[in-house]
User: What shape does this take?
Amino acid sequence: MIQLFIIAKNNFKKNMDYQNIILEKEDRIITITINRPKALNALNQGVLNELEHFFQNESDISQIDGVIITGAGERAFVAGADIKEFSGLTKEIATERGSKVHDIYFSIENFQRPVIAAVNGFALGGGCELAMACHMRVAGDKARFGQPEVNLGIIPGYGGTQRLVQLIGKAKALELMMTTEMIDAETALRLGLANHVVPHGEEVEKAKELIKTIGTKSPLAVSEVIKCVNSYFDKNANGYTQEITSFSKLSITEDFKEGAAAFVEKRKANWKSE
Ligand code: CO8
Assistant: This one.
């Protein structure tokens, strides 16, 4: 059955029949729901291919203010990579799959509009790593985060060894990855893994609220903020140099003139992304 639902406004195009994720567009916000609730939304190759397709082909970003990723059902955001697909894994397949998922998660992290994980339940293993690849995380009060891979004899292989350290620091990251302790939403908030905690069921609404606020700001400036902040963690980049590049690029835009004029004239800015 094709599970593609698009509440389309503007020019959002259907360009793939998604089987494992549901896309909805409303108020310039796309919500992606990973739709395998019986397997607690585990990331099989189908889900990964569809996320890859969306994030690497969604070029018409002028039509959107942001993207939300969440999980179907009441229990899980994503409970990890699909463990049932591990049998028959060779070194070559593991290398190929790991690299592919790194690329997908980088395309989320480098997406030019805010991407927010609405964590509505278990976010484990590759699911916690997916949430961490997003720019922010809104956790429901039933959310549980963890990196249980060493229980299976592997490590977090979808970027978790790097992004968990970036978000919560080395000592706590090592502890969570080595003990496999599952933490609740309030602990995730305290550690800096979650941006907000809301009652279960209100995760997507809160994420929408954040995106709507960001949507009132200059889209060009927002995407340069993403680029500069990501440069901090890119060993091949110099974040300070990127900041100067982005700042000077923005300084000659129409939107900069408009933003300054709107301030002086005490009115809302009318952004044109020019
Ligand atoms: N993969 C496949 N199926 C899963 C997964 C998963 N990760 N998690 C849950 N399921 C399935 C269960 O098999 C079960 O299906 P069925 O009813 O057909 O048996 C269904 O979801 C419900 O799960 P449970 O019955 O286990 O529900 P419980 O409430 O008892 O437990 C838990 C919930 C605690 C979330 C439990 O399901 C669990 O521990 N799941 C596994 C969590 C995990 O270990 N995740 C990490 C996976 S490894 C990973 O993500 C590594 C990424 C890098 C890989 C690099 C490869 C190249």
In short: The pocket of octanoyl-coenzyme A is lined by residues 39-40, 42, 79-84, 94, 97-98, 122, 124-126, 148-149, 152, 157-158 (CB under 6 Å). The beta strands are 21-26, 29-34, 66-71, 76-78, 115-119, 122-124, 136-140, 144-146, 183-184, 196-198. The longest strand covers residues 21-26. The mean pLDDT is 94.
